[in-house]
Design brief:
Layout (H helix, E strand, L loop, with lengths): L1 H28 L3 H15 L6 E4 L5 H4 L14 E2 L2 H5 L3 H6 L15 E2 L14 H33 L1 E2 L2 H13 L7 E5 L6 E3 L6 E5 H5 L3 H16 L2 H14 L4 H25 L4 H15 L10 E3 L6 H9 L12 H10 L5 E4 L12 H5 L8 H5 L11 E4 L2 E5 L2 E10 L2 E4 L5 E6 L6 E2 L4 E5 L2 H36 L5 H34 L1 E3 L4 E3 L9 E2 L7 E4 L3 E8 L1 H8 L13 E6 L7 E9 L10 E8 L10 E7 L4 E7 L10 E9 L5 E13 L2 E6 L6 E2 L25 E4 L10
Parallel strand pairs: 1-9, 5-7, 10-31
Antiparallel strand pairs: 2-3, 4-5, 6-7, 6-8, 11-26, 12-21, 12-25, 13-20, 14-16, 14-19, 15-18, 16-17, 18-20, 21-24, 22-23, 22-25, 23-24, 26-29, 27-28, 27-30, 28-29
Helix pairs in contact: 1-2, 2-10, 2-11, 6-10, 7-9, 9-11, 9-12, 10-11, 12-13, 17-18
GO molecular function: transmembrane transporter activity
Keywords: Coiled coil, Membrane, Transmembrane, Transmembrane helix
InterPro entries: MdtA-like_b-barrel, MdtA-like_BSH, Peptidase_M56, RND_pump_MFP
């Protein structure tokens, strides 16, 4: 508690000093608004920035200590003094009876009796718990501030629920101005039917523009553009992050007037910076901007509509006159530039170098020894848990060694390669129509079926377009029936020589025009229906969806906004590369004249440390030329993946089996590198029926299948083989002398693994 109090007071003192320096710098040097904003932000940062350099400071004493009371401390006892016989006789019996005698320790060897002086114990007096009261008061203020922020956020949420989405024209204008100002993404805008100031809300969630409908209807196009540029300037400057910093600082320093003072100065500097951005972006609309500020002040006058905490807007009304003078007199720094990020980082890190104070450490009191002999007598060390649990003279029993017999079966030789899993089909989900995203029905990594709705866009506009198109079709059908009836009557009159043939031609032309109008109306209706259906973004095939890139409320554009990525999981591709020598070995024609590569069977083996998952696939394509830099040829294979076991980007082992089947003996020797096993004269351990170890010299073949190795000679079918791992240095943990010929061990006899079903 003392350390936190001293740290808070130290930061407050430094922040107050920095605030005074900022005021003096503004008065004398008149720096740019960006520099003023940075100075006051540094004041806020110092309030929550610890100091790396600390000096020891005395802890403030409590009321009980200030009154002269001492805490509960036992004074050190004086050493025992020997009493002579004369001293004992000089003490009267009455005096001895009135005293309380301390216990006398037994006499030491070769000396007289001694008595210890009793320790003096002082009871502490009950004082005022000022630390507890300070902590409770600070906690109550912090909770009240957090509750106020929650209330402000809930008010903004209510405004968003009753707000109307921006029109398409307003949305396009915001996107145009945002692109002009260098923003990558324009914020979503809402028109609020309430007397609030224009603001940018980004304390919680994505940034949103809140514009009052009453004010917006009273502004012309130029004034609206200036207000939008002002709010977008807050977003480009990332002032919403400063609002979050203010929330943290004021939550911890709600009692500190320096924090509230710095917050007010930060917001004033932000408004001046945004005014400069408006004057620089729209120099021809400076007067319109001033009129917009006056209209905003008049709109908010007489209405108690405070700006919610966490929002950045047009600012407070009192400094409006000074801002208007600066704008109309062209005193805005048109050539001002934002403070470089490097300068802000250096300034922020320099706050850590300001010295601080820490409470002095109390010296640890050494408890007095109750007896001289006990204090000087060395104590035996406590035994460690390992020593207590272990029994002397007994070692842990060696484990049972698992052995198996070789198997003989048909195999085919193969060549191993390293491949990478790729999705067979992967598409980027993009909308076909523009609008506001109203639903996100998928989560990252979710498996979806074909035709399932993933995203939904606001369909009200497209529904109205479809209704209008259907009405046009009905009108065209009525017109066609009218023209057809007129043509029929005209033809009858022409047959009676009542009208001329020219009238018949005109009626026929009117009928043909009605047919064309009906076709155009039908096409427009079909297009409107297609646009309405496109507001539902569906999955084109079954697969797994990546992370959704946008949330509800985002404005999307047709074919340019990426929503997510969909990858098929039922079928995957494996891409691997083969060397030139392997390619020529695989393409060498056999006795029947067939190319071995085109007929090669394919097995995919996943690298999971155990290599126990094997899948069968087929070779789809082989590149037409070698890579001149690596000398490898790229191949692609496809294989089913119904359970989604293979994940794109995963490394797998690819085996291409070639040649005819042959009979071979396989022994389970464990996961050892195949290259180190091939050759003659390799020692292998076998055991007999009684567990006696015997060393055999064996010859390994080229075939490797997981833990199974091909044995050419040296073993028999009924031999019990010990895995090669028991011949390595790790076995000396259980067998200090290693496994050697003639040694007897305890074994567990198991069956060799079944043949691989994926091997052809």
């Amino acid at each position: 508690m003392d350390g936190l109090l001293i740290e808070a007071l130290t930061n407050s003192a430094w922040a107050a000093a920095m605030a005074l320096l900022a005021v003096i710098a503004v008065r004398l040097a008149r720096p740019r608004p960006e520099v003023v904003h940075l100075l006051w932000v540094l004041v806020l940062l110092k309030l929550v920035t610890p100091s790396l350099i600390r000096h020891q400071a005395a802890t403030p004493a409590g009321p009980s200590e200030q009154a002269g009371h001492q805490p509960l401390v036992a004074e050190e006892a004086n050493p025992a003094l020997p009493l002579t016989k004369g001293e004992l006789e000089g003490v009267s019996g009455a005096g001895l009876g009135d005293r309380i005698h301390p216990p006398v320790s037994p006499p030491r060897k070769g000396g007289s009796e001694s008595r210890p002086v009793p320790s003096v114990i002082r009871e502490p007096s009950a004082g005022w718990p000022w630390r507890t009261i300070l902590a409770a008061t600070w906690m109550a203020g912090a909770l009240a501030w957090a509750l106020a922020i929650v209330i402000h956020a809930s008010r903004v949420r209510r405004l968003l629920r009753i707000a109307n989405p921006a029109s398409g024209e307003l949305t396009r204008r915001i996107e145009t101005l945002a692109a002009r100002m260098g923003l990558r993404r324009a914020p979503a805008a809402r028109l609020v039917p309430a007397p609030i100031p224009p603001m940018l809300w980004a304390l919680v969630g994505p940034p949103r523009l809140l514009l009052p409908e009453g004010l917006w209807e009273g502004l012309d196009e130029a004034q609206r553009d200036t207000v939008l540029v002002h709010e977008l300037a807050h977003l480009r400057r990332r002032d919403h992050w400063v609002r979050r910093l203010e929330a943290v600082v004021l939550g911890l320093h709600w009692w500190n007037p320096v924090a509230w003072w710095a917050r007010r100065r930060v917001e004033d500097a932000e408004e001046q910076c945004c005014d400069a951005v408006v004057a620089r972006t729209l120099p021809e609309s400076v007067e319109s901007y001033a009129e917009a500020l006056v209209t905003t002040a008049a709109f908010l006058s007489g209405v108690r509509a405070p700006r919610p905490f966490g929002a950045s807007g047009v600012g407070r009304v009192p400094p409006l006159r000074r801002r208007l003078d600066m704008i109309l007199r062209d005193e805005t720094p048109a050539k001002s530039r934002p403070v470089p990020a490097a300068a802000m980082l250096v300034a922020g890190l320099s706050l850590l170098l300001l010295p601080g104070w820490a409470p002095a450490r109390a010296r640890q009191a050494t408890p007095p020894a109750t007896n001289d002999r006990d204090a000087t007598q060395p104590q035996p060390p406590a035994p460690s848990p390992a020593v207590r649990d272990a029994e002397p003279g007994k070692d842990a029993a060696p484990p049972r060694v698992r052995v198996s017999q070789p198997i003989v079966r048909d195999i085919r030789d193969g060549i191993n390669f390293v491949g990478v899993v790729e999705a067979a089909r992967s598409v980027e989900l993009r909308p076909q129509v523009a609008g506001t995203l109203t639903e996100v029905r998928v989560k990252s990594g979710q498996t979806v079926e074909k035709g399932e709705i993933l995203f939904a866009i606001d369909s009200r506009i497209y529904q109205m377009k479809l209704d209008r198109a259907e009405a046009d079709v009905s009108r065209a059908e009525v017109q066609l029936r009218r023209q057809s009836a007129a043509l029929k009557n005209t033809e009858k009159l022409s047959a009676s020589n009542v009208v001329s043939s020219q009238e018949v031609d005109l009626s026929r032309a009117g009928r043909d025009e009605a047919i064309a109008s009906l076709r155009a109306a039908t096409a427009s209706r079909d297009l409107a229906r297609l646009e309405l259906e496109s507001t539902k973004v569906t999955a084109p095939f079954r697969g797994k969806v990546g992370r959704p890139l946008l949330s509800v409320g985002s404005v999307v554009a047709p074919e340019s906004t990426k929503l997510a990525t969909l990858a098929a999981t039922d079928v995957t591709n494996v891409v691997f590369k083969i060397s030139q020598n392997a390619y020529h070995d695989l393409t060498r024609a056999d006795a029947n004249g067939r190319a071995a590569l085109s007929d090669a069977a394919l097995a995919i083996e996943v690298w999971d440390g155990r290599q126990n998952r094997r899948l069968r696939g087929r070779l789809d394509s082989v590149d037409t030329q070698f890579d001149p830099q690596t000398g490898n040829l790229e191949c692609r294979a496809s294989l089913p993946n119904p359970d989604g076991f293979l994940v794109p980007g995963e490394s797998v082992s690819v085996t291409l089996y070639t040649g005819e089947k042959r009979r071979a003996m396989l022994a389970q020797l464990g996961p050892m590198p195949a290259g180190s096993l091939r050759g003659n004269g390799r020692p292998v351990l076998v055991v007999d029926d009684e567990g006696n170890v015997e060393v055999r010299e064996v010859t390994f073949g080229p075939h490797v299948e997981g833990a199974m190795r091909e044995i050419v000679s040296g073993l028999k079918k009924d031999d019990w083989v010990v895995p090669l791992a028991w011949m390595g240095p790790g076995a000396r943990k259980y067998f200090p002398d290693g496994l050697h010929h003639g040694m007897k061990i305890d074994v567990e006899r198991v069956n060799a693994p079944e043949p691989d079903s994926t091997e052809p």
